[in-house]
Specification:
Oligomer: single chain
Shape: globular
Number of helices: 15
Distance between the termini: 46 Å
Mean pLDDT: 93
Largest sheet: 8 strands, parallel, barrel
Order of helices and strands: HHEHEHEHHEHHHEHHEHEEHEHH
Radius of gyration: 20 Å
Low-confidence stretches: 1-10, 22-28
Bound molecules: zinc ion
Strand order of the largest sheet: 1-2-3-4-5-6-8-9
Structural class: alpha/beta
Length: 362
């Protein structure tokens, strides 16, 4: 990674361009024509009720990579469903307890606290990086997937709350040294907090650009691994749905998500438009998806595509069947070509929501 990261950025753009041309010519994408009518979560609650997903209009399941097994894949295939694996990427929960060197460091030089339930790891830590890439390789080798959906791809923060948690990270020695080498800037001597302050005072823009490239680099290398093992599989991204201005541009500034970079690697953007969770009105889903499709310049006949994930889950409060129908339809706004909901349990346990899903999907 690091040798690659130090390579002149122009060469990296050239690699990306070559990759895009070869991708456009191969025309072997799994989900080329079909509009995606997805569910997120283990399909078991539907199957336990002896409901056939195909009869409910569903044509794709998205589920946590750790819950996938061959029996589920076989049953899904027998119902004609595509199978996509959610892959938790930069969530370091548990990992950082055993590997303290991978703990993200804030601008005061302290280990960050978990941001509500999310524990972000340092994205440049070589050990963590190897650990995650090995997991992805094993997953791809074991199962014939239609795609992998990366989740938790951002620097340590929490955006799934009405009042997000947006700390400045990561100022560990490894990040400081890598930033210094990549940017050819000699950092002053001093404590971690002094050096962090010096960067934020003098090279704020360069620092944030570099952070975005680190995140982009994860997607770039995960894509090349997918292309090596499962060339037909898609690379999707579950991501923060904020526009370029919200929270003072925090999607790029703090999370490190630069859409102009990511649209080069990501096949499908899945904004997590959890309206109730984030304290928004259902109509916000419509506005957000229209905005995102325009922002990414989505075309009907090419990648990237937009397939949002909407909220069916009753927390906070109760999401009524009518409200669920509204956000599910809003998820197909603009040039969105698919939708899914969080979660299968929330829909399967509620006959009204199951009926709504069937009505919209059929
Ligand atoms: Zn770090």
């Amino acid at each position: 990674m690091y040798a690659f990261m130090k390579t002149d950025f122009r060469y990296r753009l050239l690699f990306v361009a070559i990759g895009l041309i070869s991708l456009m010519s191969c025309e072997q994408r799994s989900a080329e024509i079909t509009k995606i009518r997805g569910i997120y979560g283990n399909p078991k609650p539907f199957w336990d009720k002896e409901l056939n997903l195909n009869n409910l209009g569903v044509n794709a399941i998205f589920m946590h990579s750790g819950s996938i097994n061959q029996d589920i894949i076989n049953k899904a295939r027998s119902e004609g469903l595509m199978v996509f694996a959610e892959f938790a990427t930069l969530n370091g929960k548990n990992y950082v307890d055993e590997h303290p060197e991978a703990w993200a460091i804030n601008e005061k030089g302290e280990k960050v606290q978990a941001a509500s339930w999310f524990m972000g790891v340092c994205p440049t830590d070589p050990g963590f990086r190897k650990y995650r890439f090995d997991q992805l390789r094993d997953l791809l080798l074991e199962y014939e997937l239609d795609g992998v959906w990366l989740d938790y791809v951002h620097w340590h923060a929490q955006f799934e709350e009405p009042e997000p948690i947006l700390p400045e990270t990561c100022f560990c020695d490894h990040c400081l040294n890598t930033f210094s080498e990549d940017s050819e800037i000699r950092l002053p001597d001093g404590t971690t907090s002094e050096r962090a302050q010096w960067i934020l005072n003098n090279y704020d823009d360069l620092w944030r650009d570099w952070r975005c490239k680190i995140i982009f680099n994860w997607t770039e290398e995960m894509k090349s691994l997918i292309k090596e093992i499962r060339p037909k599989a898609l690379l999707g991204l579950y991501h923060c749905p904020w526009d370029d201005q919200e929270f003072d541009g925090a999607r790029r500034r703090i999370l490190g998500l630069d859409f102009d970079l990511l649209k080069e690697t990501i096949d499908v953007f899945s904004p997590m438009v959890y309206h109730a969770r984030m304290g928004r009105k259902p109509d916000w889903v419509h506005e957000n998806i229209i905005w995102l499709c325009n922002r990414l310049d989505i075309k009907n006949d090419s990648y990237p595509k937009v397939w949002p994930i909407v909220q069916a889950y009753n927390d906070p409060g109760i999401i009524s069947s009518e409200e669920f129908e509204t956000v599910l339809r809003h998820g197909l706004s603009g040039r969105s070509s698919g939708v899914m909901m969080f979660t299968t349990y929330a829909v399967a346990e509620d006959e009204g929501k199951t009926a709504v899903m069937k009505k919209v999907y059929k």
